[in-house]
Design brief:
40% strand, alpha+beta, 3-stranded antiparallel β-sheet, 7-stranded antiparallel β-sheet, 178 residues
């Protein structure tokens, strides 16, 4: 009886290890990684482009068109409410980074995703006013909007994190054929 117990023990331990590691699937990992703030957002089309972004339900998107570019701003639709953040997206072929307003601004680099790609963001803290920006290739193939310059301003680091979550939601959908 002692010999059979000795043979069963390694198999039982192997079974426990397989069960323990086999139960961690991609879905549970994705749920753990998902930001709870995403539930407060609603997907909206960016102008008449094939791009979509999820923003707070009470936010709106406004477009400013130039001769060969478009800039889309998202901000609180209630202009009487104090917005803690706002942002924008430049679609065009000649983006440029914004300059900081003061030499006393602290600059940091942040890694985050946009269009499902890793991006290097520049973050500024100018006396408690925060901003971020990055420039990425759009992958549009449309000729006039080779780049996207994403930018935002926020009242706190917590709001900056919300804006980064919003920018992670940008995606391009295929145009519907009628």
């Amino acid at each position: 009886m002692n010999v059979s117990m000795n043979l069963r023990t390694p198999f039982f331990l192997l079974f426990l290890v397989v069960v323990a590691f086999g139960c961690s699937d991609k879905k549970s990992e994705k749920i753990q990684e998902e930001d709870p703030y995403l539930k407060q957002l609603t997907e909206k089309q960016i102008g008449d482009s094939n791009y979509y972004i999820s923003i707070p339900k009470k936010y709106t998107i406004k477009e400013n068109r130039g001769p060969d570019f478009s800039v889309y701003y998202f901000y609180s639709a209630d202009t009487t409410a104090k917005a803690t953040f706002s942002g924008g997206l430049y679609f065009g072929n000649h983006p440029s980074q914004f300059e900081v307003s003061s030499d006393s601004c602290k600059t940091a680099k942040i890694k985050s995703k946009i269009l499902n790609k890793n991006a290097d963001w520049t973050s500024y803290n100018c006396k408690g006013k925060f901003s971020i920006q990055t420039i990425v290739k759009s992958g549009s193939g449309e000729g006039w909007n080779e780049y996207i310059h994403a930018f935002a301003g926020a009242a706190s680091t917590a709001d900056l994190k919300k804006v980064l979550t919003i920018f992670k939601t940008i995606k391009k959908k295929k145009q519907k054929v009628n």
